[in-house]
């Protein structure tokens, strides 16, 4: 049963990440926590997400906004160490509760057509938040997703820019996690076993991306954000 659940988690999350540019950590991390210890689940998520980003980067290169990626990276330089401090010292359940309420509130605003303008200072702030969430709970996606949805970013630019940023943020976060939280054989053996599923997901996700229009893409975004917010809220109370 655990093996079947593992296959479904990795395959579904890989398809979602490839077809949208986000979603692996959002979908995989909650369910991997059912099968692995928190540190193992977070490190597996970081490692497999990094593989997906590297595999796709050539295909999405033309869609990347390098200016935004640069500002995200600069902002994350502040957020990454803050996130690992939170992971090591602070009650993660309280953090998840606060994050879940913020995600749900902002998602509702987006559904109600709240929009914002993209700006350099906001890029830096979003990068910082994403960095902090990556090293603390292994989920860099929500700040990026909320930001790009609020600025009505086209799906091609969203996917390309987030994947480029993920390639940096996942690598640095994985190194920080291994140094400060340690690692074990389970992380690497299970990640290696998941690679065939990831590559199947890459193929299927690419096919889906070509068939998803902007409206459906936006609906996908809202569903994933609502799922993330509800999941983190429930988990924080358990």
TrEMBL record:
GO terms for cellular component: plasma membrane. Keywords: Cell membrane, Membrane, Transmembrane, Transmembrane helix, Transport. It comes from Cytobacillus solani. InterPro entries: TM_pro_TauE-like, TSUP. This is Probable membrane transporter protein. The keyword Iron does not apply. Its main location: membrane. The chain crosses the membrane at residues 42-60, 72-90, 96-114, 163-181, 187-209, 216-234. It comes from the Bacteria. Belongs to the 4-toluene sulfonate uptake permease (TSUP) (TC 2.A.102) family. It is a multi-pass membrane protein. It is found in: Cell membrane. PANTHER family: MEMBRANE TRANSPORTER PROTEIN, TRANSMEMBRANE PROTEIN YFCA.
